[in-house]
Design brief:
The chain is of the alpha/beta class and 186 residues long. The protein has a single domain, classed as Rossmann fold (3-Layer(aba) Sandwich). 37% of the residues lie in helices and 19% in strands. It has 5 helices and 6 strands, in the order E-H-E-H-E-H-E-H-E-E-H. Strands 1, 2, 3, 4, 5 and 6 form a 6-stranded parallel sheet that branches. The longest helix has 24 residues. The protein is globular and about 45 Å long. The chain binds flavin mononucleotide. Flavin mononucleotide (FMN) binds next to helix 1 and strand 4.
Length: 186
């Protein structure tokens, strides 16, 4: 089983809804176990240590990850720095206004993951003519409609695929091994 954690902070619930969809996407890959956790859950640290792959989500706050998410990594996780190397990671964010900074928030989340030795990735696939999550899933407020759902789910699905390969050597989960399922711009 590839083990996935979807870890999030959410002030008003939008990023939490994204997290649930990212988790659903990960479950599309067979033999995947998923835990969706708030950073305020007492088991969050243990879950991060447990997982093979992690998706980290934060509301866009001034174009950056939230202070609570930063504190989680600064304080809660700091003593396990050098114990997370080689996990696979990605990011997602909800913003309040379009072009409000969700993608650069994803980048700030990825910067933290990189500091911890986590291997971050982008998603090349499109979910519609105009929607993808090249730098992580970026959604305006709460996810609404098929496109928002698919953007979150494809991020989780790809995380589960890379985790299956990295943690269990399941080469059949490489995106190139299933070209018919790749989602290209039309
Ligand atoms: C302190 C703070 C800073 C914010 N900064 C931004 C911002 O830079 N850009 C933006 O689009 N929205 C910004 N927002 C709005 C939130 O990103 C937005 O409401 C988001 O959907 C909240 O997600 P949540 O429900 O998971 O907390 C900010 C909100 C707060 C509270």
């Amino acid at each position: 089983m590839a083990k996935i954690v979807v870890l999030y902070d959410s002030h008003s619930g939008n990023t939490a809804k994204m997290a649930a969809l990212v988790g659903e996407g990960a479950l599309k890959i067979p033999q995947t176990e998923v835990r969706v956790r708030s950073i305020e859950d007492p088991s969050a640290k243990e879950d991060v240590l447990w997982c093979d792959g992690i998706a980290v989500g934060s509301p866009t706050n001034m174009g950056l990850l939230s202070w609570k998410m930063k504190r989680f990594w600064d304080e809660t996780m700091f003593d396990v720095w050098m114990k997370l190397d080689g996990k696979v990671g990605c990011a997602f964010s909800s913003e309040g206004g379009s072009s409000g900074g969700a993608e650069i928030t994803c980048q700030s989340l990825c910067t933290v993951l990189i500091n911890f030795g986590i291997l971050v990735f982008g998603v090349t696939d499109y979910v519609s003519k105009t929607a993808t999550c090249h730098y992580g899933a970026a959604i305006l407020r709460e996810p609404r409609g098929d496109e928002d759902r698919d953007v979150c789910q494809i991020l989780g699905k790809r995380l589960a695929e890379w985790s299956a390969i990295m943690a269990e050597g399941r080469r059949d989960q490489h995106p190139d091994a299933k070209p018919d399922l790749r989602l290209k711009p039309s």
